[in-house]
Every structure is written in C-alpha cells, then in structure tokens.
Design a protein that fits this description.
The complex is a heterodimer of chains A (277) and B (563). Chain A is of the alpha/beta class and 277 residues long. Chain A has ten helices and ten strands. In chain A, strand 7, helix 7 and strand 8 form a beta-alpha-beta unit. Chain B is α/β, with parallel strands linked by helices and 563 residues long.
C-alpha cells in the first residue's frame, strides 16, 4: 500500500547519527553473562553488553545467532538461564531455571523496566482491535494510569513525531506495513521511555516502506534516544550506529564503531558474514 | 392382578430414560435400602384393597412433630406432583384454556385438601421424575395415575386404591360392524402405548410382535387408528374414553381386559400422612363425592363400586372430559397466549444461561491454560465429563442430587439447595454449555497471535491486563460465530429442562397438543417459533459481526493485512 503520509516529503534532509548527541558515560541498561539454552541447543553463551545513555547500539549477525533472543532477554520477554540484567546499575532480573515464573516483587521489577524500556517488533504487533490512536494511548492509560486527556496529549505528540497524526482513526488493517510500524514506534514513545529496543523493525517491509521507518528511527537517534537495534541492513547500521555488535553462534564475535566493524572487519567470521550480505 | 408392567410406563419419554431413571433411583436409594426392607412388608399390606388401617375413622390423624403431615398442616399446603403434559383425563393442560391445569385427579386432590383443611399446590414434573421428586422431598404426594405395583411399593407407600382401570379396544367407527371383538382383529396391526398391560394382553392372545405397534405417548395410538396405520388401539379405558369417546371417527368396543389399581404415593416414612390420606379417601368414597368426580369426567363404571366408591348423585359429563372442543377465536387466542408464555420461558432460559456459560467457560479455558497441573486437571475432567454425558442425564442428576445434598447437610442447606425449577434449568444449561464454550474460548485465545500479548507486556502491562484488555477482546471477535451457533443450539436444547418442570415452549406445545388431539399442529407451531428464535439469534450475530467489521476489527472473515 502506498504510504499517504506527507511527512516524508515535508521533512528536510534526514539527520544522521553523527549529528546526534554523543553517548554519555552513564550506563543505562546492562546485560552480564547472559546464557540461554533451548533444549540441547545453546543460543546465548555468556553475552555481556552495556548500553550507555544516548547511545545507539546496532546488533548484526546471521539468522539464528541469538541476537533477537538477546534483545528479548533484556526486557524479559524471554527467560534466560544464567546472568543478570541491570537498569541504572540495579539488578532487575537474573537467570533462572526453566520452571521458574516471576511473580510478586520480581514481576513488578520487570514491569517497571518495561515501562522505561520500550520495544518495537518485527511484526509490528499493533493491537488489532484498536485504531492507531487507541493503540498509542493504551499503554499510558493502562500502565501509567494517565487520564484520557493526558494520554491524548502524549498520543498526539508521539503520532506527530512518526508522521501518523492524520491516520489516528485508522485500524491496523487499514494501514500499510510501514505505517503500522510507525504507529508501533509511537506506541513505544508515548510511554516516555528512557530507551527503545528495536527487533528487526524493517524485516517485514519492502525497501520503500523500510525507508520511511528508518527515517523515523534516524530522527530518534538524532534527538538522543538510547536504542538497541537488531537489523540486517548494513547501510542503516553504518549510518545510525554509535557502536556495532556482531553476534556469532551465541557470542559477541566483534564490536566497535561502525567504521571498525563494518570497514575493518576484524574477524574471519565477520568477513565471511559481510561477504555474504 | 398386579403382575403386568407399568401400564403408562413412558408417557412422552423414550424407554431408555425410564431405565436410566430406575438406575438413578436405585443408586440414590442404596443408602435407604435397609429402611426399605423394613417398610416393604408394611407397604405390601397397604396395597391390599380393603386391608385398611385407620382409614375408617373420621377423626384427623395425629401428626408427630417434624413429620410431613405436621409440616403440611403447619404450612397449610399439600405439594402434590403430576405430569401436566402427561395425559388426559388425569392431570392435563386445559384444551380450552391452556393456562389452566384440569383433570379428575385435580378435582380429587382439591377435594382431599378441602377435607384436610389445606391448600393444594401442584408441582409439575416429568412423569418419570415423579417418584424421584417425592424421594427428594420436592413434593409430599404423587397423584397421577400411579399404578400400585409391587416393585414400586418397595420405594413408596401407596394409599388405598382410588380407581380400578381396565384395557379397552378402540377401532374406527366405519369398522365397528367388522371388528366386534379382539378375535375379529386377529392378524391385524394393533397400536398400544409402549410397555403397557395392553402389550401383555395381546401377546397372551397370540399377537406376533410385528403386529403390535408401540407408541411413546397416550395420544399416538389413537392417531394411528385414525390415520389407518393400525386397525385398532388398545389402552386404558379412561384414556380411550377421553380421546375416542367424543370422536365420531372412532369407536370404543365394550370388551375389556386386564384390570389394575391407581393409588396415591407418599414417602415410605410418612406413615401419618398415608393414614390421613386413607382416612379422607375413605370418606370421599363413601359419601359419593369421588363417584361424582368420576361421573363428571365420564370415567365412572360399576367396577369402582367394588373398591368401595359410592356412585353418588347422577352428574352430567363435563364438556372438558373429551378431547374434541370446537375451535373458536377465543380458544385459539388462549392457546397462542400459552405458547407465548412458553416461548418467554425459552427466551429467559437461553438469555440467562448463555452469558453465564460463556463466563464459566472462560474460567475453565483459563484453568486449562494454567501452568500447574492441579489447576488444569479439574477443568479438563469437568469438560470431558460434561461433554461426554447426555444433557438429559445431567439435568436429572442436578435436579435430584441438589436437594439430597441439602438434606444430608441439614438445615438451613435443605432450604437453600431446593431450587425452583427455572433456576435448576438455568444451572443445568449453564453447567453443560460451559464445557463447550470453554473449548471455543480455548480455540479463540489460541488464535490471537502471541505477539499481541508480548506487545502488551512490553508496554509494562501485567499478564492480567494483557489478557483482559488485549487478548480477550480479540478472541471474543474470533469466537463470535461458533458462540452464536451454540446459542441457537441452546435455544432448542432448553426444551430438555422441561423434565424438571419448566413450562418452556416444547413442553407447553406438547401438553396442549396431547390434551386437544392437535399434536401435529402444536408441534409444527412450536417448530416454527423455534425457527423464528434461531433466525433472530443468527440475525443478531450477523449484525454484531457486521458492526465489528465496519469498525475494521478482525472477525473470522474480515481479516486484516497485518500478518
């Protein structure tokens, strides 16, 4: 479906990450020694990663290397076996055996993290029974107990930011994939998060729609939003990242500036991966 | 004399139900078996005609405190059980005004109650449920053409017989010159009510089974003769007189066969109530009061004198004692009004039960998705057991075990658990349909993409918020068509709860039909009303779906392009 928003035509030249504010020294979200197995298969073999305030970390790697699983462990949509996740230096979750299900204080800590760390999914996952506007206000009203008026103000700001303000009454089924993903980003932003996780946000989109979503993400980076982003798009990674992390078979195989990782290609696995791209 | 089988064994219900009921009765009675053995001997004495105890005295029987008789006097109400859909002229829906129940037993009980200084309260029940209802304490006495039979006397205590019945042959009036006796009908098909003494008479006379056509209610044998599907019908003389007596197309042969007695039945333990009923019956027999009632209903004959009934003053036969009444606008309007009330019961049953079943079913569905096996297991067992057993059995079990549990728990539970019939009907339909709705919910919840829950959780919602605000509303849209399907199914299944005495549509239609010889017409009328109700339900379902589609919401055939 043709994107109808006038936003991409009216906005000036896209901001690049290089123009965005530099990361501070303060670590916002940190994962330490995350290990996870699916049955016999070890998906994450002790992954540690610290994301600093205003930093944009892009995670790349072949399919099945564990990068999406790692991202989902960060906000505990996925349980992990060993390691811990810290927010502002405080431990939020730890590795648990498979039979363990968080409840009580444990559950409240996870929810408090999720309120501050938003997520955008590959399949958008817009609430199908609500229009775009209500998708965006659902979080603030349900979770943060905002009034309708407060939530409407947040929705207006968030939808304007992604260029979807005039499509507020549209149901998800009436929107293109790119438009849906922009509403999904607005939904995450309406919670006023400290950080957003992007799990392959453009993998379900064709190149044209991919462009409009990347434009929104680049804009966020420019405004200094802290982000961790999984993608297969090397050009976008190069463009938006402060730091690129290469996952290989459940390990971090290489990491550094985009120039270092994508240009110097420091490891044989990375060279093989990038040659295949 | 008492050796034949139950003469009106399954009025209106298939034979298996009776067997099943007997099993339920046996199972329920296991606890009381020892008491039964003691009382059996006493009961046998009570069924011998003339073997009266205190029946000749005219002073009221003294009631021990706490006994049923004491309770009847205290509440000034005698609760008596009868099947109003059963048959004329015992206790039946008035063909001239279906809002009234009439019959010779209605008049008889009214007279008995007058003598006792109490008011009669008719508790309607399926004929096969009368004895269990008596045992469950829903009624004090059964007066509904209950034959005094040895196997029954083990379970209930019978009064002195109040009527002696015989079997009689009915043929088409055109054939009355040809068929003058049973002998002249040899080699010809004869219609009977299933499981009655008539079957035995015919078998003894050498009728092969293929020439004996058995029907499941008292009207159908006579219809079969009129419609030439049988050459003759054999049945109880008073039923023959009601259906064929006023029908110029039918003729009752004077020859009679195989007699037996009707008695009123009380619980074995209620000795004082039994004595009081016997005392009153004896007075009514001697005074001619009972004979007058029999004359009014056209069922008087000289055999009754043999059990001590005095004929009394000459009394004309009531026009209501025969099935054929003139069709007038007023009568049609009354029948329509009665069908309307029945329809209302059907609508009330369904509109209360379906939402409850959906809610309870949702609870079961959530339980089956639980992580702990001890939460999952009870829900799974419940669903399998309820789905795997007939609704009719569930209705009987709930109807009879609830008060039983109440009695076992003692006061005040016995009052709390003796629910009115409508409440039992709602409970049965809810309990049954919840099992089906649970599976529909389960399918609907599974059909909501898991990403919906994850997206909700990623915003910081709790599992409950994600479930009730995000997943459930979407699941509801998916399950709407199968739920409407079940709603239509429930509208028709609601007729099954008539066995506990809810006067819903099919029950009303059947009652009027049987009493007025318009069986087919009434059933077609009921079918038409069911069809209209189903169409309305389907239409509502379509409107709701269309409305959801117009909102762009996802329904079964209104999918989005989102995935």
């Amino acid at each position: 479906m043709q994107a109808k928003s006038g936003w991409q035509n009216t906005t000036g030249s896209p901001a690049s990450a290089g123009d965005g504010p530099a990361p501070t020294d303060r670590v916002l979200l940190e994962a330490r020694g995350i290990r996870k197995r699916f049955g016999q298969r070890s998906v994450l073999q002790g992954v540690s990663l610290a994301v600093r305030e205003q930093e944009v970390v892009v995670i790349i790697g072949p399919s099945g290397c564990g990068k999406s699983t790692f991202l989902r462990c960060l906000n505990h949509l996925e349980r992990y076996d060993e390691g811990e996740v810290l927010l502002d230096g405080a431990v939020i979750t730890r590795g648990t055996p498979p039979s363990h299900h968080p409840h009580g204080d444990e559950q409240r800590l996870i929810q408090s993290l999720r309120q501050r760390v938003g997520m955008v999914f590959q399949q958008f996952n817009l609430f199908l029974h609500m229009d775009a506007w209500h998708n965006v206000t659902a979080g603030p009203m349900t979770v943060q107990r905002k009034t309708r008026a407060e939530a409407d103000a947040l929705a207006e700001e968030a939808l304007r930011k992604v260029g979807m303000l005039e499509r507020g009454t549209a149901m998800p089924s009436e929107l293109s994939g790119g438009q849906q993903q922009r509403v999904a980003i607005a939904r995450a932003l309406a919670m006023s998060p400290d950080m957003v996780l992007f799990d392959e946000p453009t993998s379900a989109l064709d190149p044209k729609l991919t462009k409009e979503v990347f434009r929104v993400i680049r804009e966020l980076a420019y405004e200094g939003m802290t982000m961790a982003l999984v993608t297969h798009d090397m050009d976008f990674a190069h463009d938006v990242a402060d730091r690129v992390v290469y996952f290989h078979e459940g390990h971090i195989n290489a990491e550094g500036t985009p120039e270092h990782v994508l240009g110097d290609r420091p490891t044989p696995e990375l060279r093989e991966f990038l040659a295949g791209e | 004399m008492l050796s034949h089988r139950n003469p009106r064994k399954s009025r209106g219900r298939p034979i298996e139900v009776m067997d099943l009921m007997q099993q339920i009765v046996r199972w329920r009675c296991a606890r009381l078996r020892a008491i039964h053995l003691v009382w059996a001997a006493v009961a046998v004495c009570a069924i011998t005609p003339g073997g009266a105890t205190a029946a000749d005295g005219s002073d009221p029987i003294e009631a021990t405190p706490g006994s049923t008789l004491a309770q009847v006097r205290e509440e000034k109400t005698l609760r008596w059980g009868a099947d109003t859909s059963g048959g004329a002229p015992f206790v039946f829906t008035s063909p001239s005004d279906p809002s009234h129940v009439i019959g010779f037993e209605v008049d008889m009980v009214a007279a008995i109650c007058k003598h006792m200084g109490v008011e009669p309260e008719l508790v309607r029940s399926d004929w096969n449920s009368l004895v269990p209802s008596l045992e469950a304490g829903r009624i004090d006495v059964v007066v509904n053409g209950l034959e005094i039979l040895p196997h029954r006397a083990e379970v209930v205590a019978f009064t002195e017989p109040y009527y002696e019945y015989v079997q009689q042959l009915t043929v088409r009036a055109d054939d009355k010159a040809r068929y003058v006796s049973l002998e002249s009908l040899r080699e010809k098909p004869v219609a009977v009510l299933n499981g009655t003494a008539a079957v035995k008479v015919l078998e003894e006379e050498g009728w092969p089974t293929k020439l004996i056509t058995e029907y499941d209610d008292s009207l159908k044998p006579y219809l079969a003769v009129r419609q030439r599907r049988a050459e003759a019908a054999m049945g109880e003389s008073i039923i023959a007189s009601y259906y064929a007596g006023s029908d110029s197309a039918l003729f009752n042969l004077p020859q009679t066969f195989s007699s037996g007695y009707y008695g009123a039945a009380v619980r074995l333990a209620d000795r004082s109530l039994l004595a009081e009923l016997n005392r009153v019956l004896a007075i009514m027999k001697q005074s001619g009061e009972l004979g007058e009632i029999y004359q009014r209903w056209g069922i008087w004959n000289d055999r009754e004198a043999a059990i001590g009934v005095v004929k009394g003053p000459e009394t004309p036969v009531s026009p209501l004692a025969h099935a054929r009444l003139p069709v007038t606008w007023e009568r049609t309007a009354r029948i329509a009004a009665a069908l309307g009330r029945g329809t209302l019961y059907t609508i009330v049953l369904t509109t209360i039960s379906m939402p409850l079943a959906l809610a309870f079913g949702l609870m079961l569905a959530i339980m089956t998705r639980a992580r702990s096996w001890w939460v999952r297991l009870p829900a799974q067992i419940y669903i399998q057991v309820i789905r795997g057993t007939p609704l009719l059995v569930q209705v009987y079990v709930i109807f009879f075990t609830l008060p039983q549990i109440g009695q076992w728990l003692g006061s005040p539970w016995d009052d709390w658990l003796t629910w009115p019939a409508l409440a039992v009907g709602v409970l049965c339909l809810t309990a049954n349909y919840a099992a089906y709705e649970a599976e529909i919910h389960r399918a609907g919840l599974a059909a909501v993409p898991p990403g919906q829950r994850e997206a909700a959780l990623s915003l910081g919602m709790s599992e409950n918020q994600a479930f009730f605000r995000i997943v459930l509303p979407q699941s509801f849209r998916i399950i709407l068509p199968p739920v409407i399907n079940d709603l239509i199914s429930m509208i028709k299944d609601s007729s099954l709860v008539s066995v506990v005495g809810v006067a819903e549509l099919l029950f009303v239609a059947g009652s009027i039909g049987k009493a007025s010889f318009m069986y087919a017409q009434m059933l077609v009328a009921a079918a038409a009303i069911y069809l209209v109700l189903s169409l309305v339900a389907a239409w509502i379902g379509q409107r709701v779906e269309a409305w959801l589609r117009s909102c762009g919401m996802r329904t079964i055939d209104g999918g989005g392009e989102s995935h």
